[in-house]
Amino acid sequence: KDGIAETAVLDLWLARGADKSPQDKNGMTAYGHFIKQSIYYDEMHSAIMGQRVAVHSYANWQFPHASGRAVQAKLRPPNGPSPGDLRGGSRLGIIVYEDDDDEMLDDYGDY
User: Fold this and answer.
1) pTM (predicted TM-score)
2) Which of 20, 22, 33, 77 is the most exposed place for a label (fewest CB within 10 A)?
């Protein structure tokens, strides 16, 4: 299937005057979250398929399907992406290691 098939809810949301500029605690808008989730999906799909996982730039992300590019255009804030959108929020990679991971390794050893 060619990307995102259903945008009726998004279209209704925007037709009723939804503000595309609000940011979350990481400075990301809905536009940034859409790109972030799309990149996560692309990376995970590549990893599952045994393909090399490319390092993506949030600022230059291009959707492979026209439907994704259409949603990206609909979500783009009027003044452009926020700085948080351009850096992908606080994301460091597919796996985020937490402080307690070291404790788990001490308890159970390396896998």
Assistant:
1) 0.69
2) 22
- H or E element at residue 44: helix 30-48
CA distance 25 to 29: 10
Q: At what angle do helices 8-15 and 66-75 cross, to 10 degrees?
A: 20
Question: Degrees (nearest 5) of the Cα angle 64, 72, 93?
Answer: 70
3-state secondary structure of 15: helix
